[in-house]
Each structure stands twice: as C-alpha cells, then as structure tokens.
Write the structure tokens for this entry.
Amino acid sequence: MDNYEKIKYYQELISCSYNVYLWTYDSNVTLLNTNCPNEMIASDMITLLNFSSVLLSQAQTEHHYPIILDTDLGLLWIAAFEYRQFQLHRIHVIGPSFTGRNSQMVIKKKLDSYNISVQLRSQIFHQIDHVPIIPSTTLMQFAVMLHFAICGEKISMDAISFSTNGDRSSDAGIRLISEEHRGIWKLEQNFLSLIREGSPNYKQALDKMMSLSSGMRIEFNDNMRQAKNNSFVLLTLCSRASMEGGLSPSVAYSLNDYYGKMIEECRSISETTTLNRTMLEDYVSRVRETKLDSSISGQILDIMNYISFHITEKISLTELAAQAGYTEYYLSYKFKKEVGVNMNDYIRRKKIEEAKLLLSCTEKSIFEISNDLSFGNRSYFYSCFQKEVGCSPSEYRVRNHMG
Amino acid sequence: MKIKQQVDLIEFLNAVKNCNSEVYFETTQGDSLALGSQLCQYIFCSLASKPELLEQGVIRFQDPSDAAILTEFLE
C-alpha cells in the first residue's frame, strides 16, 4: 500500500463510525483531490477559510505534527503533513466535524439570527445534521493515527496543536489586576472550607465573597451568559470542595452534570440565582449527611464549626465544653476518639491554616497575624508554625505571597 | 447580475474578498447573504447541491464598481 492508499483506508475505517471526508493538497495548498461529494459541503473550505498560511507555517515546524483546524462556525478538520526527502509533499485533511451537539446548536442559532427562508434553512440544516460530532479527545486520537498512517511515527496527543483561521482580533495580553482582587482569595478559602465541613454558615461566607466580587471581570455583552458562566464556576468549586469534604465522587460528579444542565437551561438571572442557592444547599447538606454518617457525631461537628468561626479568639477547653454541654474531660475524650487528634492540636492546626492564608493574601505583619490569631506571643507562634508547616512564617510568606 | 453556471464557488468567494465593499447574494425567496461573512460563505457553498437556487439568485454590490472584479464569474 502506498501512502495515499493507507490514508484512504484509514479514512474509510473512521467513516465506519463518523462520516468524514478526505482532502489532499500539494505543497502549495492547492487541492489535488477529495472524496467529499459537492452536494454535501463546499469542495474546498480549507482554502476558503484562509487556512493555507496556517498549514504552511505548521509544516515548517521542526516535527510538523498534525494540527486541528478550528473555525468560528465550530467546524473542525485534522490536517497532517507528508514529507518526502525532507520536502513537504502533501497535506492530508480529514473532516469536517463538530466536537459537541452544542456546536451544531450554535451554528443553527446563528442561522436563526439571519432570518433566512424556510427553503434555505432546511437545506443548510440538512447539511449541518450530516456533519458528525466527534469528541475532542477522539479527534486528537484520530490526528495521532493519521500521523502514524503517513509517517509511521507514534506520537502522543499533546503533540497535536489547534489553530483558528486567524481572523480574530489579536491577543491584548493579560492585564494583571491583582490589586483589585485583593481579599477575595481569603474569603473564597473560608467559603470552600465551610462547604468541606458541610457547615450551614457557608451562606454568610458567600455573601461576604459576593460583596467583594461578582465573578469574572469579563464583559460578554450578554448578562445571561455571564450569569451562567459564574454559576458554572461556583458549581465546579462547590463540587470539588464537597468531594474534599467526604462526598463520594460519583455523587458529586452526577450532581455536577445535573446542575450544569440546569444552569444552561436557565432563562433569567433570577433563575440562575435561585438555582445557585439550591445547588449549594444540596451539596452542603449532602456533605453534612456524609459526615453525620461517619464516626463524627453532630456535637463534635458543632464544636469543629465553632472553632472555625472563633479561630481568631483564644479558644479554651472550658468554653468549648460549656458550648457542648459536656465536662472538659468527656469532651476531650470524645473529640480525640472521633476526630483522631487532640483538641488543642486541632485548634492549633486550624489557626496555622488561617495564618498561612493571612501570610499569603494580606500585607499584615507576622506580629499582627500572631496577635490576630491570639497566639499570645510571637515566639510561640513561630514554633507552632515551624512544627506544623516545616518552615518559618517569613519563609512561607516569601514563597507564597500573592502581591 | 447572475452567477455563471459551473463556476467554482471557492474561486468566486476568494475573488469576492478582493472587493472593496460588501457583496450580496440574493435568492428568489428573499434571502440576502453578505458574502464577506464566514457563515454566509458556508451557506452559499452549501447551495452547490441546489444549482437551481444558485442560478436563480442574483449578485448585488454595495459598491457597483466592485462588479469589475467579478466579471469573469458573472453573466
């Protein structure tokens, strides 16, 4: 089998599952042949969409690995390069495909906005429905296989690059606005730690967080899209924190999919807001139930929550025992039995966690942090920190400060 | 103006890119495709399977002087 026959055979193998076509170009990106019928799609979208320069520039790279050509329309093609005697000989393109049903819907929505006639619409929809949906990882696997069919070389998926036809505006660079985000990281950590604990107090933490930030600072010119994107971010953070809090990954991921679909179906800001509340309450109550099912009793969970909320204060065993309605001796015994650590060690560990957060997110001096967390004196704070973290507070700040 | 039969649509669209102003393809159904848009180009190319739609449609120029660029494709 020569190269062309091998590639043709490879494309036919893929066609058993996905209806894709093959285009072969010469080294000047001039179409030589295709098995794509004219009535299905334009004979040469690659040239039309200005991909020639993208292809030639990829062909000039050291390894000339395959590239996936992406378009604003959501249509994708795989392009791979055939070299003979160190010269580019052919470019083989396979496609088109969508990566998800959403891409099909996007193009259909765009068509709706054009208000085109029924006849034309049915013609286009018919064609769009014939474009296969291939998940992006599968598409990358196909690119790896195409490269092997051409070169006999096995490569990994991370060698595959993506490219658009370059009509978009240039990247303006990332504008660093860390000053404007100051404080959010700390509040977010508090919020997530309460979710991990299954604590109903997450609501206050969320309110504080939202008073500082209303999500990503990107102007989409579409409030609904912005609200949905923020809900997705919240959902992801919440599901991960819930798993860290003990919720089983299968439940957390199923809820993630369920709420993801619900978010996308929201039609108003009030719907996304209500859904956010329902979703958080659902996750947090499930984390709480998981913890209740475990060996930690409700009374001890309450004590742990109390410690979280009074972490800046000097917390005494007497105070906690009064809170729980137990004797000091019994509370210490029960805490150690259920949590696995001595209560004083637990409080100290929590204070050090808070100190780490303050060191990395604020400009407070180490002395202030030590005082804020009621360590009594600085040398005690230093020795606790060193024991728990393995370095001094100042070393930790140098390594982790976000300023 | 109408498009000649058997014209290579990709070559035609590539020539449209050289025009100074927008070029429209209008169907008898009242559709008006701005051929500078990627989506309209896609729609236009998909008409290859319905040659009667292509033959009946007309090309309209925002700037009439652009017609000179496309003469070889037009009747």
Remarks:
- The beta strands of chain B are 23-26, 32-34, 58-61.
- The interface with chain A takes residues 8-10, 13-14, 27, 29-31, 38-43, 45-50, 53 of chain B (CB under 8 Å).
